[in-house]
């Protein structure tokens, strides 16, 4: 687990900001609006707002996860218009830290979801809600080893280098493979969370590594592009593939055997619990410093079970 997350976990609760409870806008700002994963966060936030009558919310994000400056601007704009609180999924742990500090200095409570901030942000936000991405990466690695054994090549298709979720998810996947097998890691390769980029990268990797035994697609657009490349190359079901996240395309790939499985986060819970945490802070209540929103490994065997259906979107 990286130090940015450790910093969040140093206390069971974080001291509350000296804010006064008042009705107003809660700004939910995610990495991109062009993803079913983040739209499911939107649904969760909507559910939280509908359960009360004191606050409204807005949902926004840049066109892509790599448009980090645009996300910084969205946070700055929210501060400038005096929102009551912010729920933020930071695309970059360093670039978003100054904006979160400014929100703190302006008396605006911030709850971080999905990916952590740098150590410099310690004490400037009220809670961190996320999948334990390191545990999730290890879970996927264990499933890969169970299926392919301990020898051969496994490619890693990642998304944006240095993002908090990517550091834990991909880093711990690679570490777990190294600790429990002799599997050779090819990559990681970074799609910038662009499906078409992931498709082209995977196509090239499959062509260059005819002896590949496994492949991991570490977020929604990357895993979708990876799955499509496997189908186009005629290697669906012959190379063991595991994805991450749970939109309709990935569910179809699990059902038809293109993917052995996909690890799915509680994205709805991130939105719902994130907004609820901000409301609690505004009402003077304590919130836990870290809330694990969980992960489920969805396979053909459990995809129709409630445990999977509750997280798929």
Describe the 3D structure:
This protein folds into two domains: 3-131 and 266-294, Rossmann fold; 133-265, Rossmann fold (3-Layer(aba) Sandwich). Residues 1-21 have low confidence and may be disordered. α2 (36-50) runs parallel beside α10, α3 runs parallel beside α4 and α7 (195-208) crosses α8. The protein has eleven helices and twelve strands. It has 313 residues and is an alpha/beta fold. The chain has a six-stranded parallel beta sheet, with helices on both faces. It has a six-stranded mixed beta sheet with strand order 7-6-8-9-10-12, sandwiched between helices.
Number of strands: 12
Helix content: 40-55%
Please report the distance between the alpha carbons of the first and last residues: 28 Å
Low-confidence stretches: 1-21
Which architecture of the largest domain per CATH? 3-Layer(aba) Sandwich
Report the order of strands and helices: HEHEHEHEEHEHEHEHEHEHEEH
Distinct helical segment count: 11
Largest sheet: 6 strands, parallel
- Quaternary assembly: single chain
Which radius of gyration do the C-alpha atoms yield?
19 Å
Query: What structural class do you assign from the helix and strand content?
Result: alpha/beta
Strand order of the largest sheet: 2-1-3-4-5-11
Q: What do the pLDDT scores average to?
A: 93
The rough form would be described as elongated
For the record, the CATH class of the largest domain is: Alpha Beta
Tally of distinct domains: 2
The CATH topology of the largest domain corresponds to Rossmann fold
Annotated CATH homologous superfamily of the largest domain: Response regulator
Strand content: 15-25%
Family: Belongs to the bacterial solute-binding protein 2 family.
GO cellular component, one term: cell envelope
Subcellular location: Cell envelope
Pfam family, one: Peripla_BP_4
